[in-house]
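Ligand: HMH. Inputs:
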Amino acid sequence: MVAMCSRVPAPWQASTVPDLWERATQHPFLAAVRDGTLPTAAFDTWLAQDYRFVGDLLWFQARLLARAPRAAQPVLAAGAAALVVELAWFEELADERGLDLGHPAQPATLTYRRLLERLDGAGYDDAMTALWAVEKTYLEAWRFAAPGAERFREVVAHWTTPAFGDYVDRLGAACSSLAGPVVDEVLRQEIAFWEMAWGR
Ligand code: HMH
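Predicted complex:
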């Protein structure tokens, strides 16, 4: 296989486990965002947990930047700065919605955090591939939900901007591989994260 790095494959090419990408990116939670049947409480539960997750991801990404090769520094530094801005965006959104972001992390959030901690101790290549998978799954998931029912339209647009798509492509281009066990592990955590809010 020549130049794996130079192009991002279609998502379903990156996992060896059937259905894992579909389950992570076409979850009923997302279909309900699209058709407007998602209860507001479920969305708010998810939002507060995702705020925690973004904080954990920033921790992971800052440390990944610290050990990254020179060529990967620009995309990782830009991404880390974008996560700081994203946290502020969540805080504004929570303010508008009268939502408390202080809820403790739920089990799915804690399990995802533990995966990030483990990846922090893993080799750089695996950690980088996992970061790409985290962002690629999220992008494809929101693209599946787009444009979203009226009351979710603004947030869906926020997570499907061309700039975010470009960022994910740049992450992919900086990876030595876009497949492997770490990708599947990320996909399982992404599925569990949707389930957390959907199940209640
Ligand atoms: C669960 N996966 C989840 N939340 C996010 N915010 C992202 C990925 C992308 O940052």
